[in-house]
Amino acid sequence: MIANLAQGVQAFTSNVFLVPGDRTVLVDPGANFDVVPAIRSRVDDLNAVVLTHTHPDHVGNLGDVKAAFDVDAWGCDPSIDGVDHAIADEERVQLGDHEYVALHTPGHKDDHLCFYAADPGVLFAGDLVFQNGSFGRTDLEEGDRGTLIESIDRVLEWIDEDLAEMHTGHGPSVTNRPYDHVELSARMARQA
Predict the structure, then answer these.
(1) Which residues are bridge partners to 116 per DSSP?
(2) Residue 124 and residue 182: Cα distance in Å, rounded?
(3) Which residues pair with 85 in a beta bridge?
(4) CATH number belonging to domain 3-86+93-191
(5) For the chain, domain boundaries
């Protein structure tokens, strides 16, 4: 079962998702809290760290996690410090027991990726979209509203109304009609 290890943490961090299974993966190690004991309390080992993007609140703990578990990090841009291996657009990546497609979704940050698995109906949305029609900031460096809207539209082309879970970079995961939340984010981003 996917667990958010940052739930309840009172620090400026992203959500940190542990995806156990055949390939136990941490999606975004977060920042500003000691995530290593939280990982060790649930699993004995990690196979990889996968990054939605490299903003500091998502990767602040990256060095500690890589050192503690002797794992590599996978992300969009291996020229960025800490990213060991590239994940190409539409590349298939195993997270836990399922194969996900990586979707390059810039607009919040150039190296942003979302991960979608049709079989279990799971989307890791990073900071692209959030619950209730919220969407990623575009006022930071590399942010661009038009590009963000294109990225949200692209995700909508991949997912369908059977989407069961959407795990976002901040705030609660969405398990009640998450497709509707993504659709609302696409509308809200156009109006803002």
Answers:
(1) 101, 123
(2) 12
(3) 74
(4) 3.60.15.10
(5) 3-86+93-191
